[in-house]
Specification:
Blueprint (H helix, E strand, L loop, with lengths): L1 H23 L4 H6 L3 H9 L6 E3 L2 H10 L10 H24 L11 H18 L1 H5 L10 H14 L3 H23 L5 H21 L31 H30 L5 H16 L7 E3 H9 L6 H17 L8 H11 L6 H10 L1 H16 L2 H21 L2 E7 L6 E3 L12 E7 L2 E2 L4 H18 L9 E5 L5 E2 L1 H16 L3 E5 L3 H9 L2 H5 L4 E2 L2 H18 L1
Helix pairs in contact: 1-10, 1-14, 1-15, 3-12, 3-14, 4-11, 5-11, 5-12, 6-17, 6-18, 9-10, 9-15, 11-12, 16-17, 17-18, 19-20
Length: 566
């Protein structure tokens, strides 16, 4: 009985959060409620995650409110704006379904973990600043999302129009919600307290406004919320006109962001419970639920981390939690929307603000900084881009930096000097294992790149030549000078014509210096192409080896024969 009541309380919390996110997306409140009905039911039939809670989320709502108004002003023409949002949702669902159908899940991976951490943190701050409109009770507010524009709008509006009662009411309940969250984390037995705190906040604040007639003294209230079942929006989808390409672009961005958040949330909780989450099945489920949502007056829905965390804490074991939530919201749409007439807008703002700290992970950002500085640069690029420019710029900055990192690692791969571990046939990097012994007269190098191609062929050739030159300069006696160069190709999975040309040039240079070239552990694709290019014939099949130890033994024997002949 207790769990049923708790589940019902959670569903009401999600209902209130949905209204707040609809406001964030610059839509009427009922559209947030509609989005908490159809998509969760579709996901319950098709999805594979047991814990994930489906509905509108802060980041996607902010993305829509920052990009769609560039086409139509929601204040000047709310009907046209709503139609474009439905069309964006249709495109988002289509892209998600196609990703799953054609197994294109790797596209989501272009948003790296570091980029997501920075993007979420920047989005959380921007969302928090936008809630100042509701917290201060402002009527005029900027449509832009960058922090400079938002703060400028806040300071401008505070001087002319703001109502202290909104601020006092909102801040009081924000403190209450944050304290409830803290208590729930400190005492696991009180996990239910943060779940019902938003509901208590709405009930108490609504009663205060109703009894004191605070709405007559400047307190902004929700007023009328259209009730009833989700109406059809098929006739509102717009596939003609000047904005189709732009809505498709926004749909693609929303699809990727929504999938990234949902899959990250789903996999996190699936790993805790010890089961596997099928990424392509998740994409199909997300795609079809958003397609269905676009036809039933919903906007883009996805898996919410804060909602899922509440579900997990409450002990939800199956997707039935999504069905319960959908039924609860459906009942609210039919019976309870009139009761929210006097709910202060500041309370909805405080509910959203209380959920934002979970999006800012300072410890994870510090961990990224400590482990990989280039990853942290992607994290910082996403954070600064979202904060000071726009959602698109933040995502573009993160993806660009991530690609730059991949390119940098590809075009400047490492060349490692190898040595034999004492009393073994194991050859390791000398810098990592100082006890590794170099063989006199034999230089062993390992190419640390999966692809020897046009992007890195010249760099690798020059790097290997430099290693040979440096080794000869270091060795004082003629006996210790490099006589044989062994290249370990075990990491090279493929090679192109530029890579073959670079190897030929390297071989010619070695011949001119009187140095023999041996190659080790050539992969099938690599040796096949080298045979076609007749490179194997040039160096001789006797200089191709399976292991480094085999190559060294053969080279030592060759040196002994050469010395005795001399």
């Amino acid at each position: 009985m207790f769990l049923c009541c708790l589940c019902f309380a959670q569903s009401l919390y999600f209902l209130l959060q949905s209204i707040g996110y609809a406001n964030l997306a610059k839509l009427d409140p009922q559209y947030g409620l509609y989005t908490s009905v159809v998509p969760p039911l579709i996901y319950a039939l098709m999805g594979s995650s047991r814990e994930i809670a489906i509905g509108p989320v802060a980041v996607v709502s902010m993305l829509i409110s920052s990009m769609v108004p560039n086409m139509v002003d929601p204040a000047a023409d709310p009907i046209a704006y709503t139609r474009l949002v439905f069309t964006v949702t249709f495109f988002a669902g289509t892209f998600q379904a196609l990703f799953g159908m054609f197994r294109l899940g790797f596209l989501v991976d272009f948003l790296s973990h570091a980029a997501i951490v920075g993007f979420m943190a920047g989005a959380a701050i921007v969302i928090g600043l936008q809630q100042l409109k509701g917290l201060f009770g402002m009527s005029h507010f900027t449509a832009k999302t960058d922090v400079v524009s938002v703060l400028g709008s806040v300071f401008k509006s505070v001087r002319h129009e703001w109502y202290p009662l909104n601020f006092v009411l909102g801040c009081s309940f924000l403190v209450f919600l944050l304290v409830a969250r803290f208590i729930g984390r400190r005492n696991k037995k009180l996990f239910w307290f943060p779940a019902i705190a938003p509901l208590l906040s709405v009930i108490i604040s609504t009663l205060i406004v109703y009894l004191t007639k605070a709405d007559k003294h400047g307190v902004k209230i929700v007023k009328h919320i259209k009730g009833g079942l989700n109406p059809s929006s098929l006739h509102q989808l717009q596939f003609k006109g000047p904005h189709v390409a732009e809505t498709a672009k926004i749909g693609l961005i929303a699809a990727v962001v929504a999938l990234t958040e949902a899959i990250a949330v789903g996999r996190s909780f699936a790993s805790i419970k010890g089961y596997h989450l099928d990424g392509n099945k998740e994409m199909m489920a997300m795609g079809f639920m958003n397609l269905a949502g676009s036809l039933t007056s919903c906007y883009v829905a996805t898996g919410s981390f804060s909602r899922t965390a509440v579900n997990f804490s409450a002990g939800c074991q199956t997707v039935v939690s999504n069905i319960v939530m959908a039924i609860t919201v459906l009942l609210a749409l039919e019976l309870f929307t009139r009761l929210l007439f006097y709910t202060p807008v500041a309370i909805l703002a405080s509910i959203i603000l209380s959920a934002l700290p979970g999006l800012i992970d300072i410890n994870e950002a510090y961990y990224i900084w400590k482990v990989d500085k280039l990853d942290f640069l992607a994290c910082l690029g996403a954070f600064v881009g979202v904060l000071f420019a726009s959602v698109e710029i933040g995502l573009l900055a993160a993806v660009t930096i991530s690609f730059a990192k991949i390119l940098l690692n590809s075009i400047r791969p490492a060349v490692e000097l190898l040595g034999r571990l004492p009393r073994t046939d194991i050859f390791c990097e000398v810098d990592q294992y100082p006890m590794a012994i170099k063989t006199p007269g034999i230089l062993i190098l390992r190419v640390n790149s999966g692809l020897l191609c046009f992007a890195n062929a010249n760099f690798l050739r020059e790097r290997i030549m430099r290693c040979v030159t440096e080794e000869n300069e270091t060795d004082e006696t003629a006996k210790d000078r490099v006589q044989i160069l062994i290249i370990d190709m075990s990491n090279v999975m493929n090679i192109d014509t530029s890579g073959i040309v670079a190897l030929e040039e390297l071989h010619n240079k070695m011949v001119s210096l009187g140095i023999k070239l041996a190659m080790v552990n050539l992969r099938w694709q690599v040796i096949h192409k080298l045979k076609l290019a007749k490179f194997v014939e040039k160096i001789g099949t006797e200089w191709i080896f399976l292991t480094v130890a085999e190559a060294v033994d053969a080279c030592v024997a060759y040196k002994l024969v050469s010395t005795s002949n001399c």
